[in-house]
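Dinitrification protein (NorD)
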Amino acid sequence: MAFTLELEEWVGSVWHRFITRRASVDFPEARVELAPRQRSLALLLRAMGGDGRGVEAASERDLLLRRSLLQQIAGTCRQLPLAWCDADNLRLPASLAVFPEAALNEELYRWLALLAAQSGPMRHWGRDNQRWTRRLLQRYPALRGRYRRLVEAHLQLRPDSASLSRPEAALERALCQALREPGSVAEFPRSERAAWPVPLWLYPPLHLASPLAADLEDSPEDLATTAGEQAGGRKRASRVEDQSRDGGLLILRLENLFSWTEHVDLDRWADDSEDPDSARVAADLDELTLSRTRLRKGGGLKLHLDLPPAEVDDIPLGEGIHLPEWDYRKGRLQEDLVNLQMLVPRDCQPQPLPSRLKPSAQLLRRQFQQLRNDRQWLRQQPQGAELDMQAWLDFHVERAHGACAERGLFMEQRQTRRDLACLLLADVSMSTDAHLNDEHRVIEVIRDSLLLFGETLAGLGDDFALYGFSSLRRQQVRMQELKAFHQRYDDHTRGRIQGLKPGFYTRMGAAIRQATRLLAGCKRQRKLLLLLTDGKPNDLDLYEGRYGVEDTREAVLEARRQGLTPFCITIDREAAAYLPYMFGANGYTLIRQPEQLPLRLPQLYRQLTQP
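Predicted structure tokens:
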């Protein structure tokens, strides 16, 4: 019996491969993928006037085609890859194998990107595509040869009109004429079945023929995928009314109550657990059905933080500062998009250094004292302790040639001040309220790090500034001034540091841009921007995932273009997944034992500032 079942499975798999291959209209040996060409196509689309659109993969579309008997047996040609545009993206097939040559399939990708750059709102599929094609060929006559090759190759693969019914044959002839001479066909015959797909044209966006289609505009948070889910092509979706009554009211009579010791099985109408197979199941589905009354699995209490009242909030310093933000989807900076407010902590009394940190502070001062006492030899001095042999040789050669400039011939050793300025930017978002262990929270480690860092640099004599930052959407990026460059490091600064409280979210790009502006005002040759954080950038609005990472990366690049040295110090063990992209492979470090951060931070500063 087992042998028979295995034989049946083997025969079935062989038959499936055979019939599918015979019924396929594609050319697998010439298939090209979208993924490696996605970036170049997006650049081509924007360069040709694509209005900031991106390029994304599109799922296959259902078409009511006349299929051959072989295709009906194999179950193929029900769904076909088509290109279309929505408000933000050009949706291209994830792979193309419509031509027997890979070069033609690659050329088809480029043609669709060029056509999308000329496209607008679609009112009639046939007339609009002809108009866009004619406009593109008139503007760029060099494309006519490429277009002709694509058309001739495609017409050879289209069905013979003699084998079709009269309405279908009339529609097929009209389409062939429209492809050969764009703009020559004004009216297309009607047919009960769709024409064979035209891969050189754009198709209408997916619209839902349901009365509830207008309700599909859910927020990104409601329909967001969980971590680890596969990000594939866009799915078709439809709205349905949930007729389930499992979640209705439960009516009991008191005489039916059981005693406390009896076990009662309750049928819960919703499950709070995550389904580990949900991503796989969603990837296999062609259509997703959405309902208003169903709850997202793994649901829990979700709180959005709000600003405290003005009388208890930190004290604002002047008006808000308008800063730009990078939108990777449009490929440009959006000017004055973010409002940043400089603040001073309220009701922070001057405090001395905590006694538990005094031994560490004394140890660091002794270690850094030698940097303060570094002495350098100054050459070509009019007087000094030693003769400058290089200056004497230059003087001797110039005198031998009849040109003798006045110069000092001695060397003198003097103590010089380091030409260096540093700004330390600390993340004080709500995530820093988490516990590292049974004794310490992240915010406590950050406070200790700022205190020891300030004690060390105050003893060293380098110019430095200390700031904390958090955010609540783009309208309220908060930057706490703990010590500005012109201020002394004293008990007032120590009190502000010890009064830091975690709150809100992490909009890194705006904080880095403001820190860059502050450092730009320092008249020092070397400028170091240190970022101390426990996680990746995030906020309540679009500042999640790739958007936040791309904006932070652009802010870091802007700082480097102004001559600054940005460096990130993190305790996030997942940092290797995103920090190399934002700061570069050598632009960050991970502290694997966060409780060691207060002592490690000054040592990192010493390594970064060594000449």
